[in-house]
Amino acid sequence: MTPAALEFVGAITLEALTGRPVHTGLFDPGRALDHIKLARAARAMVVAPATADFLARAAAGQANDLLTACLLAADGPVLIVPAMNDHMWAHPQVQRNVAHLRGLGYRVLEPDEGMLAAGEGHGPGRMPEPESIFAHIGRLCEAPGTLAGTRVLVTAGPTREPLDPVRFISNHSSGKMGVALAAAAWRRGAEVDLVAGPMSVEPPLGVTVHHIESTDQMAAAIEGLLPQSDVLVMAAAPADFRPAHPATSKIKKSNTPPNVPLVPTPDILLATKASRRPNAVIVGFALETNDALENGRAKRSAKDLDLIVVNDATEAGAGFGVDTNRVTLVARDGSEDLLPLMAKTEVADAILDRVEALIGGR
What's the CATH number for 151-360? Predict the structure, then answer.
């Protein structure tokens, strides 16, 4: 804690809340080398909130308190989280200091917009929420891999095909698997586009989200994004059929049609073959209810995929809407890897490990 921080919250309070010692002084007796020890012990250094004063001192390379001395002694990644009045944040000197810190290799997280101190508006300057900071720490600590600097396109969730203005055909997909993949790819350093149907989970932090409803809308979004993408992971569950003639007004019970003719929706994954980048890695999913592996192998071949993720919707803990999955990864070379039942976040990492190996081999 800096001297200014101690004016707001006592060190004893933070020690009681965290169960950890709170370091405050650069010249405390017996602690002359704390700035070296603390800097070496840290896997990453995070300054939150970072005030305008701290940004200025850090940009100037000062070491006049324990925090700035630790910063100069740190040899790991650094995340700086500014928070201040919006006019202070917009000041040219503050922006020059931020630009200089970024030039030194520090990662500076843009402040959020929201209510600020003294009742001043909703401008940029508010400290991001802890969940956002934690997500960026995860990305900061991730070992550099072949996904760093790539562009990854992930799809997630169901699509909806209208029966009339108030009803639709869809499925039970929650979007959890696609969200886990998008979050893991972003954490590994990729720039991630997430094409998301109406999911029951929030999209992850850091990714660019493209919201869609219908299968046609998903296809159009992918068509526009795929030519710039190094990886496509088609984890969404687009509807396979749609009403041939959607009603223009609500269908009343008194006028229920005897049947509803259905027609197939476009095969999005197959249609991507013409617009895939050379050497792009293409991953599909096959959710089956019978002969899962046989159907998955056929789908991988028909759609020219590098990898297909096969699972059985009838297996407990491996279908829609749950936090776990049991999958088999079927590769282009014919190799198959049956994974045990595990959290979807772990499945996402297993899939991306294979993707990184494919990228590295190309």
Answer: 3.40.50.10300
Catalytic residue among 85, 97, 171, 279: 171
171 is catalytic: yes
User: In sequence order, which residues have a C-beta less than 8 Å from that of residue 163 and are 6 or more positions away?
Assistant: 169, 243, 246, 247, 251, 260
Q: Can you tell me whether residue 192 is helix, strand or coil?
A: strand
More confident residue, 32 or 261: 261
CATH of 3-141, one of 1.10.3720.10, 1.10.760.10, 3.40.50.1950, 3.10.50.40: 3.40.50.1950
Place of tokens 């009681």: 16
Give backbone dihedrals phi and psi of 316, rounded to 5 degrees, phi first: -60, 130
| Residues 285-340: tens digit of each pLDDT | 999 999 999 999 999 999 999 999 999 988 888 878 899 999 999 999 999 999 99
Counting every residue written for the chain, the total comes to 362
**351 Rama class: left (phi>0) / alpha (psi -120 to 50) / beta:** alpha
Q: Up-side HSE of residue 9: CA atoms within 13 Å toward CB?
A: 13
